[in-house]
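Project standup — Tuesday

K.O.: blocked on the structure for the chain from last sprint. Re-posting the sequence here as requested.
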Amino acid sequence: MMAIGSLALAGCATARPAFVTPTASDRFFVAGYHPYWAGDAWTTYRLDAVDEIYFFEIEVAADGAFLDRHGWPTRWRAMIADALGAGTQITPTVSMHDPVAFEALFQDRPAVERLVGAIAGLVAETPGLAGIHLDFEVFQPVDLAARDGYTAFVAEVREALRALDPRLSLSVFTLAFDDDDVYNERALARIADYLVVQGYDYHSLESPTAGPVAALTGWGRLNWEGVVQRFEDLGVPRRRIVMAVPLYGYQWPVSAEGPGAPATGPAVAIPLTAPPDVLPELPRAIAQAEAHGARRDSASGSPYYVFREGAGWQQGWFEDAESLAAKYDFVRRRGLGGVALFPLAYADEAAWASLREAFARPRS
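H.V.: unblocked you, prediction finished:
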């Protein structure tokens, strides 16, 4: 810990205002992800509507070293400077999506120490960062020792950030459903400043049926109502819950026209919209809906479209200004901490307007 302690001298030399977090403001917190593949799309963001940008992502290997920083911070210095100049906070996302690597890493003490040190160095090398966002996603059972090891790791990151600068925040992405009990959400909520709760992929690429990506209600347990209730039942304070909101959807080949029809193959992702040079091979949801006619599911409030293709059907589910506004109203009514949009590069003008309308005013 000596290296961390020495780095802290500069960060604590003078008293400075705290960063904006969901629990330290009279406003709702608005964050958004900028993925590395979105390139310079950040130049189109309405920074006056966003409190914090999470750069996505800095990937971690099983040995605790950074596997791929995707150009951070060198490639992104203009984005960092532009955001900070506009008063928008910047936070890098440290991530892992490999269950085998997760299980190995969090049962290997030297590897965990290496990663904690690397994260501290990440913050120290780029002045002005607001903190760290952790996104470690595992969707299958792991050894209990790895589960506990991850919780201990999050606590160590929390202490490392405090040593650097007590203002720095720590946020942790958590799964909508944790049926395999990979995470101790009760403990994570106590350690972190707040949790970003998965509010999407309730129907995803490999789902057996088409359906809403982020249903507000309906569709069995696959909805925001049930997910938020799960976290409340775990004792997570509402202000520590930030809902991740998708600005994309999926289009499935299906066997019938009706909503929720069986999929006949994997879906393709459909950004709401996006600059022409960002994933140009993917269809855009808004354009598809305009071409084929938008419908609205009464159970979830989500829009979708359907069209014939050959002998089968295609069904696309996405979000629009109306469904986003309903989600933002849900966040306000439930007194949650705020929202985190994934990814900001896929927002159209209607989406930005819906965001401003919902969160420009203080909590009521």
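K.O.: great, moving the ticket to review. The radius of gyration is 20 Å. The chain has ten helices and 14 strands.
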